Structure formats: structure tokens, C-alpha cells
Amino acid sequence: MAIILIGFMGAGKTSVGKLLGKKTEKNFIDLDYEISKRLQMPISEFFVEYGEEKFRETEHELLLEYHQSSGVISTGGGCIETVACRELLKQQTQVIYLQAEFNTLWNRIIDDQLNIRPLAQSNESKDLKRIYQKRLEFYEDCAAHTIATDHLTTEDVVKQILQTIDW
Ligand code: S3P
Hints:
alpha/beta, binds shikimate-3-phosphate
């Protein structure tokens, strides 16, 4: 059964997922990477050309395809915006919510020059905070386990996950 990481942008889903994959000797699947391969363009470009709704459709398709694998899956922060994704996630027992306060996430997002996040580019801090607040209940609803990551390193988070789940 897959271990699925959820959480807002900047929660560390990709770095935690990579390390967790290594430690558990499971395949690491970065859903955003798979989506941009499927779309044959960077996510930021796809948002501009086709819009968020089309992006969400592909995101759901790929979650459906991969959720039954035995890998470690990092999802995009907005995956839980889609009802069908939430329904699917709620049925899984290994969904880990990487939780953090908005200010922690905002600082990580603006420090990360490599990852172009369309929603972070098109929204100011206060608007992104509104999106964060709206999503909180979705993350909590879908999570089988929650890890508060504000003061933890990637290593610490992985250690906590390994103590929390069966793998
Ligand atoms: C999104 C988060 C991104 C990516 C896309 C949309 C969101 O993933 O899927 O830009 O709606 O929060 P990360 O959470 O990995 O940055």
C-alpha cells in the first residue's frame, strides 16, 4: 500500500518523500513531476494555457493510477481541492499530513527559487493565507496521521513517519 504525503506548498512533501522512499526502499513518486510529464509541459505553463480546472483533472487521474502502488507518493498541495481526490485519500490508511503554520510555509515558498508555483506567483501572502485556511479542514479530513513539521528537519519528519506507520 502506498504511503501518501499531503500538505500545503512548502510542507516538504517532496524532500520527505524522497528520503522516506530511500529509508523504506520504496519507489518514490512525485505526482507533480508525473503530471508535468503527462501534460508535456511545466505545471506553471499549463496553468496559464489551460487553467487550474484542467490541471486538477489530470492530478486526479494520476492519483487514481498511482494510489494502489506500493511506493511513497508526494502529492501537490492542492490535490485535496478535488472532491474525488479527497474521497480516495480518505479511504487510505497511510496518508500523512505534513502540517506547518502559514508563516513557516510562506518563508519556505519564497526561499525556493527552483520550484515555480503558479498559485504562489499569482497571489500575495494574504491571499495565499486565505487559500491555506480554506484547505486546512480538507487536509485534516483526509489525513490518517498528522506530523507538525515547523521545527523539524527532513530527517526528523521521516523518523516520526517511520515510528507512526507500518511499512
Ligand atoms: C499546487 C501545489 C503545487 C502544484 C501546483 C498547485 C497547489 O505542488 O501541484 O502548483 O494548488 O497548492 P506543491 O505543493 O508540491 O508545491
